[in-house]
Structure formats: structure tokens, C-alpha cells
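Thanks for the sequence, V.! I ran Sulfatase-modifying factor enzyme-like domain-containing protein right away. Repeating your input here for the record:
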Amino acid sequence: MPGDSPIVNITVSDFSISDTEITNAQYIEFLNSAYNNGLINVELMTATDPCGSYDEYMVVATDIAPHAGEIYLQLGETGGCTSDGHAEHIDNKSWITFTGEKFELLDDDKSDWPVNWVKWYGADAFAQYYEVALPTEAQWEYAAKAGYNYEYPTDDGTIDLSKANYNGDTPGVYNPDGHAVAVRSYAQNPFTLYDMGGNVWEWCADYYDANFYSNDAVDPVNTTPNVDNKRVRRGGSWNYHASTLASYARASDFENRGNNHFGFRVVSNYTN
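Predicted structure:
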């Protein structure tokens, strides 16, 4: 795919990475703590998708929070819409709601599903709050390849529907019943990490640049904004095809975008 090449050699310093994507339960703990500390508010705002415009509650950073004024998370009772205007499966809605006093789950059975509808700002704010970080793109890829240079970030480097939550092998084929599932539903990779491929896309720290990487770089991270402020996301998701789950496959999106298949994990011992 464009931007996936050329192959370069990069050195990455020691780091640790969360073994799963951040879950609804973990994100709710952050939201309640941040709310009690005056870092976030909940505001009714207008959202737009292929089904039209509608009012939705959003978690918004206050003036004393990281990324002041930006939306961290979209709440809501629906799963959004496909690009051709069809309503998503109901299991793709945000499972986090606000009661007026606190954040809580709409369904206790979804506590260990990866948080979705989270924007890059909301992922980075979570990381900052706990004094960790979003993975750099290089860290993410190293973790995905698991010391074996695996093509896919699965238990053995191969891909099929028993190894990851994705939408099959053919681009453009959409499964209307697709949705995220609980973390640890599939076998871990050799680094004991789950769902590095599929389930939800994972935000990275870097701004996207197709030509950023060069041979022999040490701990590279692209902190230079591009013209459209797109950040890297990696790993594919439940509604993307197999090639996007490859350990080396690169993708990007706007910082203020988040939907039913965007999530994240975090790292410590981050080098910048």
C-alpha cells in the first residue's frame, strides 16, 4: 500500500506496552477522575455522518486540561452510519454514558470491550493523565512484529478469522453484523499482546508522513504537524480487510475524528 515502503532499519529503545487495547472500564475510570478534577465537561453538540446531522453528547476538555477545548469522546446511543448511509449494528455504539454526575457503562457486559468513539485528543489525554504515552509508530510496529518480523501481528504471523477480529480478506466487502469484541478474545502474539491486529484501530503519537522514516534512525517520532494534522493509526479493525492488519501497514486520520472502530493502547518508558 502507498506509504508502507520502503523497508528501513530502525532502533527502538526498551519500552513496555499495554497488553490490550484500553477498555471501556479503564476509560470510564479516567473520565470520572478527570471530571472530578475539573478537566472535562459534557456538552451537547452537533455531529454529522452519512445519515445526516444530529445532536450528541461529547466529552470536551476544559481550559486546564490537555488539548483544551477539544473533544475527547463522543457518547451516544447509536453505532453511527456506514459510508453509504446505512445504520451500523447496534453493538457499535459508544458504551459509555453520562448520568449528570458520573460516567458509567450502558451494559456491564461491555466493560472489557475496547473503548471506541475516542478521538486522538482523548487517547493522548488518557495517556498524559496516567503519565504514560501513546506508542510511537515505530514502537507499535516493533510490538506487532513480536521479534519475528511477522507479517501479521497474530500468534504465528498468519491471518484468518480465528486469529483476529476483522472483515475478511477482500477489500470493500462490508459485514453489517461486524463489531468490536472483548479484549483477549484471540490468541496473544509472542510478546503476549492481544489484538495488535483488528478489533479497533489504534492511535499512535506520530503525525503521519509517508516519507518520514530513514535508515538507522533511533527512536523516531514525527512531531511535526502536516497540512491536515493527520495522526497515525495502526492495526486495522473489525470492519477492515486483512491487508490493513499487516504489521507494516500504515494509515492515518484527523485528530478530531473518532468512530466505532477507533481506540488505542499506551506505552511507558517512552523516548522522545
